[in-house]
Predict the structure.
Amino acid sequence: MKIKITLTLSILFAITSCDQITDNYWQQKEEENHTSPFMGKWVGTYNGNEVGTLTLDISKNGNITGSLGRTEVDLASYVYDDGTLQPVISTHLALHFTVT
């Protein structure tokens, strides 16, 4: 009886594990084939305490890199398909974007 229970549980665990592996594989393939609707180079101006040009490069998968003003300040972020921006990471600045 213990052998049957152990064998049944082992088979169920193996099937569940295989399903998770398959699901992860297809999810990874979807992410590889995904193209952000915002992909490209975006250039705009900003003002406030300073005035300048903001340049953002959005990659195929939605990662953002860019520069701010005449000094090359590295920016890193991510844009979701609905246009929501992940907080901008910079080693020199604290930035808050409002997209209009």
Observations:
- The radius of gyration is 23 Å.
- Residues 2-33 form the longest helix (32 residues).
- The beta strands are 40-46, 52-58, 63-68, 75-78.
- The helical segments are 2-33.
